[in-house]
Amino acid sequence: MPRILDGKKVAQKLKDQLKVEIENIKLKFNRTPGLAVIQVGNVAASSVYVKAKTKAAKEVGINVIDHHLEESTNQNDLINLINELNNNDDVNGILVQLPLPNHINEEMVLNSIAPDKDADGFHPLNVGKLSISQKNDESLMIPCTPYGCLLLLRELNVDLVGKNAVVIGRSNIVGKPMAQLLLKESCTVTTVHSKTKNIESICKNADILIAAIGKPEFVNKDWVKEGAIIIDVGINRIKINEEKSKLVGDVLFSEVENKVSAISPVPGGVGPMTIACLLRNTTAAFKLKNYN
Ligand code: GUN
Hints:
Layout: E1 3-4, H1 7-29, E2 34-40, H2 44-60, E3 63-69, H3 75-86, E4 93-96, H4 106-112, H5 124-132, H6 144-155, E5 164-168, H7 175-184, E6 188-192, H8 199-203, E7 208-211, E8 229-232, E9 236-239, E10 245-248, H9 253-256, E11 262-263, H10 270-290
Parallel strand pairs: 1-11, 2-3, 2-4, 5-6, 5-7, 7-8, 8-11
Antiparallel strand pairs: 9-10
């Protein structure tokens, strides 16, 4: 039987630690770490994520400042709001939920977030730091989903050094930072994507396979090596019938579960970890500002 990587449980452990840390911060500084959450428009999935992030932040004692803006918000107004938050001492972390409406340039918006308040780790300075920093650099703002994947992997207590790790997907949010993190762990890292030739055979060579392609149940047992560790980043809603739908990952769980040594489920795997890592980054941002 494979080990099921219970993201809910691991995320709860991290949130419990953060809660204690934040209680201590409040006693020491008489201040509360603050997270500004910006959503533009009403993409349904974004609303679900923002709600979950807000709830979790409040649970650990972070002060949440919500800005839900209209779909028609113009780019300058959004950047002006970010500048205000950059200058607000009560705000330690800023998160702009993606995707943004098409009329807004995502890159310009992410560049406008102060790097030391960049709770998502998407600012170019933080992207660069991730690439050149040492392994356990506590000051990094690490993108939350790949960071969550790494913490799940660490739960297994397996030696990652020299392992073949294959990341499926090359997004700025998951695939690219995931590859950086695994490289830092001294894995031999391959990133595959929609244009890769022989993708199946490359994946079949993976000791660690991270699936972040956004295609429901795309990875089947023929892609997977016996005894591999699988982290499934996908969150895809599929229809079962006219009334019902369900969430599935990028991996065909029922087919691969008997072949692998460990696998993260969907839901309840990477999702909760992403949220817990956002709270970690916000707390780290507070500490970086106040403990020096
Ligand atoms: N959209 C999908 N994933 C993410 C994430 O990790 N952060 C933000 N800000 N938006 C997202």
